[in-house]
Design goal:
176 residues; mainly alpha; two-stranded antiparallel sheet; 9 helices
């Protein structure tokens, strides 16, 4: 697919490390928002039998997705499998095998950031949304962090710490 999208030039401003960090931030927000739903007790009577288990199970699934994103981010920033594995309580080979499919999908999505639907008309992003449209993700994540007071009064608590591409890298990574 040699056609460009409106997001290609914008995405080129970010390093792969920064894009991976945005995806991790986005997945962490999903975990935090899901966990928040388990805190209040006022609506317990409205929840059917097993409902809170369903919410907790969804939280685990979201946390596993965040973990895979964290591994991708750590690999993008140069962490070794040994360094990652020590926090997982497994050996380096097992860590590499466990997350190989996630890393492979991440790498392939950069080769083909989108695919066409069956009709050949609609582009379907292969990158996670936060990496496909990083400017939108920065706006959303900065706003979320500000409202949660994570950066106290920092309006760019997420985007200010990203490793951006050097200007020469930007121009070379945009498809012709």
């Amino acid at each position: 697919m040699t056609e460009t999208t409106p997001y290609d030039a914008d995405r080129a401003r970010f390093t792969r490390q920064a894009l991976a960090r945005l995806v991790l931030c986005d997945h962490a927000v999903d975990v935090a928002d899901s966990a928040r739903g388990l805190v209040a007790t006022e609506n317990d009577p409205d929840t059917g039998p097993g409902g809170r288990v369903s919410q907790a199970f969804q939280l685990i699934e979201l946390a596993q997705r965040a973990l895979a994103s964290a591994v991708i981010y750590e690999r993008e920033r140069g962490s070794s499998w040994s360094e990652i594995a020590q926090y997982l309580g497994i050996d380096a080979a097992e860590a590499g095998a466990r997350f190989a499919a996630d890393l492979d999908g991440w790498d392939k999505a950069f080769d083909a950031p989108y695919r066409l639907d069956e009709a050949g008309r609609k582009r379907i992003p292969q990158l996670p949304t936060a990496a496909y449209d990083p400017s939108w993700a920065c706006d959303q994540l900065d706003r979320w962090a500000y409202l949660q007071r994570l950066g106290i009064d920092q309006h760019q608590a997420v985007s200010s710490g990203l490793v951006m591409a050097a200007p020469e890298e930007e121009s070379s990574s945009v498809p012709p």
